[in-house]
Design a protein that fits this description.
The structure holds 2 protein chains of 2 kinds. Chain A contains 11 helices and 10 strands. Chain A has a 4-stranded mixed beta sheet with strand order 1-4-5-8. A 4-stranded antiparallel beta sheet of chain A has the order 2-3-7-6, with helices on one face. By secondary structure, chain A is an alpha+beta fold. The two termini of chain A are 38 Å apart. In chain A, helix 4 packs antiparallel against helix 5 (81-100) and helix 9 (313-343) packs antiparallel against helix 10. In chain A, 52% of the residues lie in helices and 15% in strands. Chain B is an alpha/beta fold. Chain B contains 6 helices and 13 strands. In chain B, helix 2 (67-74) runs antiparallel to helix 5. Classes of the chains: A alpha+beta, B alpha/beta. Chain A binds chain B through residues 7-8, 11-12, 14-15, 18-19, 22-23, 44, 47-50, 53, 62, and chain B through 186-194, 197.
Chain lengths: 389, 263
C-alpha cells in the first residue's frame, strides 16, 4: 500500500521505524514494569532530528507539519505508545507557542524544543475541570511586571520532566469563556512544583503528575497572545494535535495486528495454524480493515490541516475518535487471538490493551469528540442551501 | 583530524544461497547491505570527530551501486564520501583492494587515521585493513574496542584479545580496525539523511588514482577465488578420548600417520 509520501516524509518514517524496532521494542516491557521515563530514547529521537519535524526551519525544525508529526508518532507507537506519547505530548506543549506566541517567545522556546534539548508539556486539566475545561480554577493575577499563578493542574503528561509548560489559567473570572489566558511556565520558576507520579493502568512509562502553582511568579512576557484567549488557544491547539492521537491509535493497532498475525500463523491447534480457522481470520481481517481505515483517515486529516484549511474541527475530531476506538477493539482482539498467552505479561499484547484505553479518554474524551462532530454537523448543514430530500 | 573510513557493500548474508550447479553465490534478488562490521568503523570515526573535532570521509571500492552504501553511512553524519569505481577494479583480491584504497587515502590526504571494520562478511579475510597499512607504510592495530587521541598525534587503542584487552599506542597517521565493542552505531538523523540524498559523491577510477590496470583488479591480484562451495557434511569422525595427555598422544600419532580427515 502506497500513501504517496514525499521523500522527506518517507525518511521520517524510516528513521522513526528504525528507532522503534531497534531501541524501543527491546525495552518496552521493562519501561512498563519500572515506570521509568524513557530519557535514553528521547535523546536518540533528539539526535535524529525528530523533535523538530513539525516546527519551522527558522527555529531549528525541518519545516514539516501535522502529517510529518503523525508519521513519526505512528511508527513509534507501533513499538510503544508510552514512548510515542512522551514525544507527542511535547508537541502538544509547543503548539500554543507555535500558533500564538510572539516572535521572541518562538525564538526562545521553540528552538530548544526542536533540538530536543527541552521537552514541553501542556496543562489545562484540573481535578474539577476535565471535559468541562471552562471550569478551571487556577488563577493568574497581574502584579506589576509579573503574573502570579495559583492552583493545581492534574494528570499532566511529561510533568516534572519537561522544562517548558504551556498552562491555561483564569485571568478574569467575570468574563466566563473569555476569562482565561495561556502562559509559558518554566521548570524552576519560583512557586512551581510537581505532585506525585500517578499510578496508571497503562502508559506507565509516561510521566503523569500534578502541576502545583503556589504564588508562582512569572514575568508578564510569558503571556501567550492576549489575555482572554486561553480557551481559543486550547481549542486551536487540540484541532492540530488530535490527528497525532489518532496516529497513536494507528501505530498501536498496527503493532497489535503484527503480533496477532505472526502468532496466528505459528500457533497450531487441531493440526492447523489457527489463522486457517475462519473465526480467527475474520477477527484479523476486521482488525486489519479498521487499522487501515484509521491510517488513511489520520493522513487525510493531517494533509487537510497542513494545507492551511480553517474548517478543521470536525475532521480533526473524527481523526481522533475513530482510530482510538479502533485501537481499543484491535488490542482487545489481539489479546483474544493470543489466548492464554495474550493474558500473560510475558507477551506484549496485554500491555497494548492496557495502553489503548487512555486514547479514548485524553485530549478530549471520545464523548466530547462526538459532541464536537455533532455540533459541527449542525452548523455545517445549517449553512448549506441544498436540501437532500 | 581527518579520519577516513573504508566500507564495503556486501550481499545480505541471511539470504544468500549457493547455486548447486555452478557452485557460485546466487546474487539474484539478494539485498546489498553495508558490511555489518563497517558500521562500527563509521561509529568509531564519528565518536572521534565529535570528541576531538575534525572531519570524516567514507570511502568504498565497488561497482557504481556501492554508492548507495556510502549514502547510508552519510545518514549517520559522516561529512564526505568518495566512490572508487572502475571496471579495472573488478575481481580484486585483498592486495589489489588495499592498494587501491591506499592510493585513494593518499589522494585525500593529509589523513590522520584510517578506520576499517574487522572483516567483510563475504570474504572474511580481515586482510584489507592491515594491507592498507602496509601499502601506506603506516602502523596499524586491529580489533580496537576503544580509541583515544593522545597528545594530538598519537592514538591509544584498547585492543580486544581472547582473554581481555591490551593497550597499544601508536603515532599517527595510522590504520586501525575496530570491533563491535566500540559502541552501538547511532541512529540516522533526518537532516543527515536529507543531505545524504542530495550530496554529490565523486567517483575515482584507476586513472584518477595513478594506477595502471595491471596493478589493480583481477590483473593485480596475487590470489584468485577458484571455487566457492558448501563443504559436504562430515560423516567420518572419530572421538579421541582419555586424559588430556592421552588425547594429545593419540592425536599426534594420527596426524603423523596422515590419518586426520580433511587435513
Amino acid at each position: 500500500m502506497d500513501y504517496f509520501l514525499t521523500e522527506e516524509q518517507q525518511m521520517i518514517r524510516e528513521i522513526a521505524a528504525k528507532i522503534a524496532t531497534e531501541k524501543v521494542r527491546p525495552v518496552r516491557a521493562e519501561l512498563d514494569e519500572s515506570e521509568e521515563f524513557p530519557w535514553d530514547i528521547m535523546k536518540i529521537l533528539a539526535q535524529s532530528d525528530l523533535f523538530g519535524i513539525y516546527l519551522p526551519e527558522e527555529y531549528g525544525g525541518s519545516g514539516g507539519g501535522v502529517l510529518e508529526n503523525c508519521l513519526a508518532i505512528e511508527e513509534m507507537g507501533r513499538a510503544c505508545i508510552s514512548v510515542a506519547t512522551t514525544f507527542a505530548a511535547s508537541g502538544l506543549g509547543a503548539y500554543p507557542i507555535l500558533l500564538y506566541g510572539s516572535e521572541e517567545q518562538k525564538q526562545k522556546y521553540l528552538s530548544p524544543i526542536a533540538s530536543g534539548e527541552k521537552l514541553a508539556a501542556f496543562g489545562v486539566t484540573e481535578a474539577n475541570a476535565g471535559s468541562d475545561a471552562g471550569g478551571i480554577q487556577t488563577t493568574a493575577k497581574r502584579d506589576g511586571d509579573h503574573y502570579v499563578l495559583n492552583g493545581t493542574k492534574q494528570w499532566i503528561t511529561n510533568a516534572g520532566e519537561a522544562e517548558i509548560y504551556t498552562v491555561v489559567a483564569m485571568t478574569d473570572r467575570t468574563k466566563g469563556a473569555r476569562g482565561a489566558s495561556a502562559f509559558i511556565v518554566e521548570k524552576g520558576d519560583p512557586g512551581f512544583s510537581f505532585g506525585k507520579e500517578e499510578k496508571k493502568m497503562g502508559l506507565r512509562a509516561s510521566a503523569t503528575r500534578e502541576l502545583l502553582f503556589n504564588d508562582c511568579r512569572i514575568p508578564a512576557d510569558r503571556l501567550i497572545g492576549r489575555e482572554g484567549t486561553g480557551f481559543i488557544i486550547t481549542m486551536k491547539t487540540f484541532d492540530v494535535s488530535r490527528p497525532g492521537i489518532g496516529a497513536l491509535g494507528v501505530g498501536l493497532s498496527q503493532g497489535a495486528l503484527d503480533i496477532s498475525v505472526e502468532y496466528a500463523r505459528k500457533r497450531v491447534q487441531f493440526g492447523k495454524p489457527i489463522i486457517a480457522f475462519q473465526a480467527v481470520q475474520h477477527m484479523l481481517a476486521d482488525m486489519a480493515t479498521e487499522t487501515e481505515a484509521s491510517r488513511v483517515l489520520v493522513y487525510a486529516a493531517a494533509r487537510y490541516i497542513d494545507s492551511g484549511a480553517k474548517d478543521i474541527s470536525k475532521i480533526s475530531a473524527i481523526s481522533k475518535l475513530y482510530p482510538t476506538d479502533v485501537a481499543m477493539r484491535v488490542t482487545t482482539n489481539a489479546v483474544q487471538v493470543l489466548g492464554g498467552y495474550g493474558y500473560m505479561r510475558d507477551y506484549p499484547v496485554e500491555k497494548m490493551m492496557r495502553d489503548a484505553k487512555i486514547l479514548q479518554i485524553y485530549e478530549g474524551t471520545n464523548q466530547i469528540q462526538r459532541n464536537i462532530i455533532g455540533q459541527e454537523l449542525n452548523k455545517e448543514y445549517g449553512r448549506m442551501k441544498e436540501t437532500f430530500f | 583530524m581527518h579520519i577516513v573510513v573504508c566500507i564495503k557493500q556486501v550481499p545480505d548474508a541471511k539470504n544468500v544461497r549457493i547455486d548447486p550447479e555452478t557452485n557460485t553465490l546466487v546474487r539474484q534478488g539478494v539485498d546489498s547491505i553495508v558490511n555489518p562490521h563497517d558500521w562500527y568503523a563509521v561509529e568509531a570515526a564519528l565518536l572521534l570527530r565529535d570528541e576531538y573535532g575534525g572531519r570524516t570521509t567514507v570511502m568504498t571500492m565497488g561497482p557504481p551501486q556501492a554508492e548507495e552504501a556510502l549514502r547510508e553511512t552519510l545518514a549517520l553524519g559522516v561529512d564526505e564520501a568518495v566512490l572508487l569505481s572502475d571496471r579495472a577494479f573488478a575481481g580484486a583480491d585483498t592486495w589489489a583492494t588495499s592498494l587501491t584504497l591506499a592510493r585513494a587515502v593518499e589522494k585525500l590526504g593529509p589523513v590522520d587515521l584510517v578506520i576499517c571494520g574487522k572483516q567483510a562478511i563475504d570474504g572474511d579475510t580481515a586482510q584489507v585493513g592491515p594491507g592498507l597499512a602496509a601499502h601506506l607504510d603506516q602502523p596499524y592495530t586491529t580489533y580496537g574496542r576503544r580509541l583515544e587521541l593522545v597528545d594530538g598525534d598519537q592514538l591509544r587503542v584498547e585492543r580486544l584479545t581472547d582473554f581481555g584487552y591490551e593497550v597499544v599506542q601508536m603515532a599517527l597517521p595510522a590504520v586501525v580496525t575496530v570491533v563491535r565493542e566500540i559502541g552501538d552505531p547511532r541512529m540516522p538523523g533526518l537532516k543527515h539523511k536529507m543531505r545524504a540524498k542530495k550530496l554529490e559523491i565523486p567517483t575515482w577510477g584507476a586513472a584518477d588514482l595513478d594506477l595502471n590496470p595491471e596493478e589493480v583488479g583481477l590483473q593485480g591480484s596475487f590470489t584468485q577465488v577458484v571455487k566457492v562451495f558448501s563443504p559436504p557434511p562430515r560423516s567420518d569422525r572419530e572421538m579421541i578420548t582419555g586424559e588430556v595427555e592421552e588425547q594429545a598422544e593419540k592425536l599426534f600419532k594420527l596426524l603423523r600417520a596422515g590419518k586426520v580427515p580433511g587435513l
